[in-house]
Amino acid sequence: MAHPARTFNSKYWPLVLAAMCLTLLVQTSTAFAQQNPTEAPKFGFVNLVRVAQEANAAVTAGKRIEAYGKNVEQRFRTREEALREEDQALGRRRSILAPDAFREEDRKFREKVDLAQREFQEIRRQVQQATFEAQQIIDERMTTIISEVAAERKINFVFNQTQVTFVNPLAQFDLTDEVVRRMNATLPEVPVNLPKE
Length: 197
Prior knowledge:
This protein is mostly helical.
């Protein structure tokens, strides 16, 4: 069976956050455009992947979730190995047990396996929920900061850098450093409500 560690990998965190923010960036850009329909549009972009890689809250949350997942995975591997050995031992005893006694032992063993699977599924659900909640907090703060920076610089279209095919000179349109700086100043970490081990 899959393990909680595989439900989250910190190397994918930036991609998840970037995807979550993309729609919000478009909505923010549309709102700015509607405020000043007669002015020439001003453009900016944010490298959302870089923000997620460099924002302290995202980095620390990702590391916590990944470390937790590895610990849980190790715990379940140990438990799986114990169950495997128990199953093999039960198989060896089959020939010496009465049929009714074997069925009873087998039933008890299957209950242990089912319990382990249910516990794993519940931990995986809780890890996924904790990851989603942390992502939401980071996403909301990132979107707020992008909106603030855009308003201050009178920018009415903000794009994810992956949407920009050519900009020259690039630096004057890049809001990424300022977004990272404000993220780290206002959201140095984010709570991650992982289940107790």
